[in-house]
Amino acid sequence: MTDRKILLIGTAAAIGVLAGGALFLTMRPGDDQFAQCSSSSVAGGMDAFGTPFTLTRDDGQRVTDQDVFDKPTLLYFGYTFCPDVCPLDSARNAEAEALLTEAGEDVQTVFVTVDPRRDTPKVLADYTELFSDRMIGLTGSDEEIAAVNKGWRNYFKLNDEEDQEYYLVDHMTNTYLVMPGGKTVEFFSRETTPEQIAETVACYADASA
Question: What residues does Cu cation bind to (predicted)?
Answer without folding.
Answer: 82, 86, 171
